[in-house]
Amino acid sequence: MGAGGFVFVPELSGKSMNGTCLVTGAAGFIGSHLVDRLLGLGHQVIGVDNMVLGRRENLAQALPNKQFSFRELDVNEAAAGIAFLREETARGPIETVWHMAANSDIQAGGRDPDVDLRLTFLTTYHTLQMMQALNIPQLVFASSSAIYGEHDGELKEETGPLFPVSNYGAMKLASEGIITAALERFLKRAWICRFPNVIGSRATHGVIFDFLKKLRANPAELEVLGDGTQEKPYLHVSELIDAMIFLWQRGQGKPSCYNIAPETGATTVRYIAEAVVQAAAPRANIRYTGGSRGWVGDVAKFRYSTTKLKSLGWSPKMTSNEAVELAISENL
Ligand SMILES: NC(=O)c1ccc[n+]([C@@H]2O[C@H](COP(=O)([O-])OP(=O)(O)OC[C@H]3O[C@@H](n4cnc5c(N)ncnc54)[C@H](O)[C@@H]3O)[C@@H](O)[C@H]2O)c1
Question: What are the angstrom distances between the C-alpha of 60 and each of 16, 63, 124, 202?
């Protein structure tokens, strides 16, 4: 066992890291950026998305690339997925699945728990089922700060007990559980990456996306849920992908679980509201609905410890506020 609880698995290092990748949720915000980056690194990439939130234009750069193939597919239709992937793997085995598909609307999951059961948990369950059927050894999983629930102080990977306060967080935590159980059965390696709030171009949701959408509908006023004091770390999607690829290329861990976030700092909702208004509708009035939480299931404030990731040698370059400013300019 090495630093940070790693187990080195030599047969999966080196050359095999250049293999074919499957990205679920490939037409979504993070998935599409990941597809572009993996193609840029020379990988063969297969993308699937049911297009509930995914957009074909997010794949504009990838679709003409001969190294990329895309299928509109619901991951929960595992039999259809296995049949499609069998055809694809005739050209060569898939070595890593990047499981990005999930419900990304936490509030929708609060209104109807069925949403996160199907889109957040069962997509993981069925992804694992497909991986077992096709003998795919490695999984990188998009987990979330939402698994932690509410804690005082910095959230470390070992923080617990974990009592999520949203159905989304609960189903991400359950997904982590079935992934670690799969490591005992067939999976060779898993990277559990716990994202903070991720922002940037092609966003399909999130605070900046919502504020800009509201201001387009009504340039005179921005309604902000809560009192604006909610404070969280925001990471630019380019840096999230840098970190995930960095972890994956280390070829270590079974499982390896990491918080990914800006090294220091968090950004308040008030800061974001004021920056968005200044950029998009400088005369708009900002109206706060009040209360310390934005909505049921919102964790109003949290800070991540990124010591574990930093100890491996990776740190982001942008602060949380810098990432917010860049993402606003990209989404205008
Ligand atoms: N954006 C963030 O701030 C953030 C934070 C923490 C974790 N995450 C996780 O990162 C991943 C990517 O999130 P995102 O922000 O890009 O959201 P997104 O909604 O843009 O991307 C998710 C994609 O998955 C697709 N999808 C959903 N259900 C599917 C199914 N059954 N079969 C196939 N495709 C399906 C959607 O159509 C969408 O394109 C998700 O797992 C999300 O939970 C995101």
Answer: 28, 6, 26, 11
One domain for residues 13 and 108: yes
Same domain, 78 and 163: yes
Instruction: Quote the pTM value.
Output: 0.94
Nearest to 126 by CA among 85, 159, 90, 160: 85
Q: Are 212 and 280 contacting, i.e. CB atoms less than 8 angstroms apart? A: yes
Calculate how far, in angstroms, residue 120's C-alpha sits from the geometric centre of ligand 1: 9
> Which numbered atom of ligand 1 lies nearest the CA of 197?
3
Three-state DSSP class for residue 43 = coil
Domain that holds residue 293: 207-232+265-303+319-331
Provide the CATH number for the domain around residue 222: 3.90.25.10
Cα atoms in the Cβ-side hemisphere of radius 13 Å centred on 177: 11
pLDDT tens digits, 62-71: 999 999 999 9
Residue 28 CB less than 6 A away from ligand 1? yes
Please give the Cα distance from 250 to 45 (Å, whole number): 20
Nearest Cα residue to atom 2 of ligand 1: 198
Q: Is 169 helix (H, G, I), strand (E, B) or coil?
A: helix
Tell me: the pLDDT tens digits for 13-48? 333 445 899 999 999 999 999 999 999 999 999 999
CB distance 54 to 33 below 8 Å = no
- Please check whether residue 67 is in contact with residue 44, taking contact to mean a CB–CB distance below 8 angstroms: yes
CB 100 within 8 A of CB 23: yes
Could you tell me if 55 and 179 lie in one domain? yes
